[in-house]
Amino acid sequence: MVMEIVCPAGTPAALRAAVKAGAHTVYCGFADETNARNFPGLNFDRAEMREGVAFAHAHGSKVLVAINTYPRAGSEALWHRAVADAETAGADAVILADPGLLAYAARHHPGLRRHLSVQAAAANADIINFYAQAFGVKRVVLPRVLSVPEIAAINAETEVETEVFVFGGLCVMAEGRCSLSSYATGRSPNMNGVCSPASHVEYHEDQGVLDAKLGGYTIHRVGRDDPAPYPTLCKGCFTAGEKTNHLFEDPVSLNAEQLIPQLQKAGVTALKIEGRQRSRSYVAEVVKNFRAAVDAVDAGRPLPTGMLARLSEGQATTTGAYKKTWR
Amino acid sequence: MPPTSQSIPQFPAHLARVLRVLPLAPLSLSLTAYARRVAKTHAGLFRRLGEHDHASFELAPTDMPFVLLLEPRGGDPKVTVTRRAPRADARIAGPLAALIGLVHGAYDGDALFFSRDLVIEGDTAAALALRNAVDDAELDLSEEIATLSGPFAAPMRRIVSFAQRRTGVCLTRPEDLAAW
Fold first, then answer.
1. What residues contact A172, with CB distance under 8 A and at least 6 apart?
2. Has residue B28 been placed in a domain?
3. Given an 8 Å threshold on Cβ–Cβ distance, is A280 in contact with B135?
4. Torsion on CA atoms A150, A155, A160, A164, rounded to nearest 10
5. Number of folded domains that form chain B
6. Is residue B151 domain-resident?
7. CA of B76, closest CA in chain A: separation in Å?
8. Is residue B147, in this structure, part of any structural domain at all?
9. By CB neighbour count within 10 A (0-12 exposed, 13-18 middle, 19+ buried), where does A125 fall?
């Protein structure tokens, strides 16, 4: 059976582009802090969500609505309303992270399929089975810190479908538990839906040298011929003592395209593409490539060669934790 | 595929020199009228700007002898063409072909930014909101002009198509990829 491609859509135009490019499934969110890509100019109002779902369904694609931040005490109604509105819009599932919100959705919207967000950082079979038993979770998006053998081990011990990231910005932290963005800006993906919010990002270019700052801290300084970085702390380049280094690795993007056969063998159901903050042109290009790749694998043909590096942060790619060369 | 620096056409330098004598006031008036038409036909673009719909943007084609100051003014936009960099909340600079290609959705803004073909300075959030709003609007600037041209729409489209082929600049919105 062909692996499902789950594609990002930050805007209605990107949703249509993804569907036309061959996305089996599109994920998106409402234009507020209920989803973890709460960036300026992005996301869907209620009418756009209804129209987007109708468009996707008319073309045979599914829509998942990400409501994957953690509700703020006293403001839970915003998150509850998002779940209800996703169901009303006809969403095929909601992607949730907070156990309280999962319990709410299971109790009040039992017919709405529930997926566990990567923001829940569920990284072993026991916790995944717990989410399935307690809240009826049908699919889990696995954290980007697992190797292929670890993913296979999880799939051997759970009936819950697994979805893994295969392309796009690479978060190297335990998602949902990272406070680096809060430290520098007071805002985080977990509570506000923004990692390294654009409102706290500044660029200064002087004679070809580009400084990228976050919350007043210089995170990167690159020369004229180097790719421009987005200043996230975990991908920053720092000087300590007499050494200047990236904390974990260069700011490169994940590309696990060549690992698709191994991921299929490991029991993975769906392949997720990161990038709700990217343009419709990017979405169409990446979706087209990955659809061709999964169809090739399904038909027993060789994988097409990758052509996506220039679209990536750092203009270079890595297989991240799947091969664990960076640990 | 999205471009690299090598594949983004540059406006010919000799033509740019000619444009130095272009009277800017009529150009500003025309572009403002044009932007107001876009505001009517694509009201969602200004809604999507959200809290940034009163920000000001310097759009700087680096291969042209002038820059544009775009003020959305909550859906009543104004465009001013100047020879000197104006005061603006955000500055977006790059070759004219890159800026037009971005408007038409031919290029990915992040990819252009990573490759240093596009420079963003000032209020990054406002610049991001503008980029996302424009990307969602699915604009076709040439088609808007053709529509305004009345009986000359058909020849206008042919001229645009010819210019696009000759220059490599994405002057119209690329057709969507065919359904799978």
1. A144, A145, A234, A235, A248, A249, A320, A321
2. yes
3. yes
4. 50
5. 1
6. no
7. 18
8. no
9. middle
For residues A179 and A320, the answer to whether their CB atoms sit within 8 Å is: no
Verify whether the Cβ–Cβ distance A278 to B50 is below 8 Å.
Answer: no
Identify whether the C-beta of residue B94 lies closer than 8 Å to the C-beta of residue B118. Answer: yes
Type of residue at A64: L
Q: How far apart are CA B82 and CA B53, in angstroms?
A: 21
Which residues on B lie below 8 Å from A284 (Cβ)? Answer: 176-177
The single residue listed with the structure tokens 């932290």 is: A173
B127 contacts on A by Cβ (under 8 Å): 198
And the tokens for A304?
Answer: 């097409």
For strands A209-214 and B90-94, give the pairing: unpaired
Protein fold of A4-171+252-322: TIM Barrel (3.20.20)
Residue B147 C-alpha, separation from nearest chain A C-alpha, in angstroms: 22
The residues on B that touch A, with CB distances below 8 Å, are 1-2, 4, 48-52, 102, 105-111, 113-116, 119-121, 124-133, 135-138, 176-180
**CB-count exposure of residue A73 (10 Å: 0-12, 13-18, 19+):** exposed
Q: Cα–Cα distance between B153 and B172 in angstroms, integer? A: 14
CA–CA separation, A138 and A110 (whole Å):
12
CATH number at residue B103: 3.30.1050.10
First-last CA distance in chain A = 33
For each of chain A's 327 residues, which pLDDT tens digit applies?
899 999 999 999 999 999 999 999 999 999 999 988 889 999 999 999 999 999 999 999 999 999 999 999 999 999 999 999 999 999 999 999 999 999 999 999 999 999 999 999 999 999 999 999 999 999 999 998 889 999 999 999 999 999 999 998 877 777 888 888 888 899 888 888 888 899 999 998 888 899 999 999 998 888 988 888 888 888 888 888 888 888 766 667 788 888 999 999 999 999 999 999 999 999 999 999 999 999 999 999 988 876 565 555 555 667 777 765 544
Q: Do B115 and A315 touch (CB under 8 A)?
A: yes
Residue type at position A326: W
Give domain limits for chain A: 4-171+252-322, 180-246
* Residue-range definition of the domain harbouring residue B110: 5-139
Cβ B50–A40 below 8 Å, yes or no?
Answer: yes
Does residue B52 lie in a domain region?
yes
What the block records as the tokens of A161 is 């479908």
Contacts of A32 in chain B (CB under 8 A): none
Contact between chains at B114 and A210 (C-beta distance less than 8 A): no
Q: Which of A281, A295, A308 to mutate to test the interface with B (most CBs of B within 10 A)?
A: A281
Provide the shortest C-alpha distance from residue B152 to chain A (in Å). Answer: 30
**Which DSSP symbol is given to A310?**
G
- The closest alpha carbon to A120, from A70, A155, A186, A161, belongs to A70
